[in-house]
UniProtKB/TrEMBL annotation:
Alphabetized SMART domains for the sequence: Glyco_18
Start and end residues of each GH18 domain: 34-381
Signal peptide (UniProt feature, chain positions): 1-22
GO molecular function, one term: chitin binding
Classification via PANTHER family: CHITINASE, NOD FACTOR HYDROLASE PROTEIN 1
Protein family per UniProt: Belongs to the glycosyl hydrolase 18 family.
Coiled coil: none
Protein name from the UniProt record: Class V chitinase CHIT5b-like
Length: 382
């Protein structure tokens, strides 16, 4: 039943949206172009070692996270972190098929102030850039990803543009000097090109990003969450008929701002967000809520959602309007992406002509279920 309606929807997607997008959609089918990325949270490395990663499902794995020193702005890898980096690379090098590896710098827990300081002057940018290249080469990574969450004003956005430009120049110089392929350079960014919801309007430096980054990882999730307990929400809605807080709007805003579609990679959440319903009989998306549901801060990994659903015999509902899934039992409500909504979103991303998708986070899947369906849904990909 679910498969049948999914296939129907995919047909609608490919044969109604794709022609409207013209030649770019056809170009999107080029097999070598696809990026199937996933962030690997290093703090789970004992329970989820890099050797357990199923590399046939991914093209790029991002080690999350590494942060520079807040006094020297260089990467001073501690004795406890060094083996994590070496083991990550050693384990993945033994894998077939191979994957590319990147160090992701920063992350949601890192706080934005350090990166604002680093980006603010040429001397701190240089310390940071040179050290990042050194650490990537030392451990054998293929690239670097900056996850500065988030630049807070127009000045910081301008500084970010300079940082990317000087970073790319340094990467090119290093590549020439050592006769090695240049390191990849990517960034995890807000779902939209500008912070149109914020009191302090600011927009990403698109021209610099186009010129200097290999691609962006657009964080197309956390549209709703613990900060608003008044109503349930599809936290990674592809469409939202009532607002611009949707992946469709965000991804198109990047394209409209001039970033080539081939530099846009869509984020997919391998986790759900939960609420406590006000009235168990009113349980749709946007239903009144009175608090958070199960999970720490109202968050459950996809694997935990599956356990919750099974244990509670929860009702699971696919919502075609938002392209999301939710489940509920009693007053507990979970909004997430399952195999159907994920595969549908992957089809929509491909129809938009995007480069690929990535997951936050790799270890939250259940038996590679979502990663497998996403990989299959990207037609003619790896
Ligand atoms: C730098 O980091 C250390 C350890 O994480 C912290 O204790 C300190 O307050 C930070 N200093 C600044 C200036 O942010
Ligand atoms: C969405 O954004 C567009 C401009 O990009 C604006 O015209 C429209 O009013 C916005 N819609 C909502 C519901 O905010
Ligand atoms: C699970 O819920 C369905 C209805 O949603 C019901 O038909 C079924 O009997 C329930 N199973 C168990 C084991 O409670």
């Amino acid at each position: 039943m679910a498969n049948f309606s999914f296939l129907n929807l995919l047909f609608v997607v490919l044969f109604s949206i794709a022609p409207a997008e013209g030649a770019v959609a056809a170009a999107a089918l080029a097999p070598e172009a696809a990026i199937k990325g996933a962030y690997y949270p290093s703090w789970f490395s004992s329970g989820f070692p890099p050797s357990s990663i199923e590399t046939s499902l991914f093209t790029h794995i991002l080690y999350a996270f590494l942060s520079p020193s807040n006094t020297t702005y260089k990467f001073e890898v501690s004795d406890s972190t060094a083996p994590l980096l070496s083991n990550f690379i050693a384990a993945l090098r033994q894998k077939s098929p191979p994957v590319k590896t990147l160090i992701s710098i920063g992350g949601g827990g890192a706080g934005p102030a350090l990166y604002a300081t680093i980006a603010s002057s040429a001397s701190t940018r240089k310390l940071f850039i040179d050290s990042s290249i050194e650490v990537a080469r030392k451990y054998g990574f293929d690239g670097l990803d900056l996850d500065w969450e988030m630049p807070e004003n127009p000045k910081q956005m301008a500084d970010l543009g300079l940082l990317f430009q000087e970073w790319r120049n340094a990467i090119t110089r290093e590549s020439k000097a050592t006769a090695r392929p240049p390191l990849l350079l990517t960034a995890a960014v807000y779902f939209a090109v500008d912070f149109f919801l914020s009191g302090t309007y600011r927009k990403y430096p698109v021209a610099s990003m186009n010129q200097n980054l290999d691609w962006i990882n657009a964080m197309c999730y956390d549209y709703h969450g613990s900060w608003d307990t008044s109503a349930t929400g599809a936290h990674a809605a592809f469409f939202d008929p009532n607002s611009n807080i949707s992946s469709s709007y965000g991804l198109r805003s990047w394209i409209q701002a001039g970033l080539p579609r081939k530099k846009v990679v869509m984020g997919l959440p391998l986790y759900g967000r939960t609420w406590e319903l006000k009235d168990p009989s009113v349980h749709g998306i946007g239903a009144p809520a009175v608090g958070l549901g199960p999970g720490k801060d109202g968050v459950l990994t996809y694997s935990q959602v599956e356990t919750f659903n099974k244990k509670n015999n929860a009702t699971v509902q696919y919502d075609a309007t938002t392209v999301s899934t939710y489940s509920f039992k009693g007053t507990s409500w979970v909004g997430y992406d399952d195999v159907v909504s994920t595969a549908t979103k992957v089809g929509l991303a491909q129809a938009l002509g995007l480069r690929g998708y990535f997951f936050w986070a790799l270890s939250y899947d259940k038996d590679w279920r979502i990663s497998t369906q996403a990989s299959r849904a990207w037609i003619y990909g790896k």
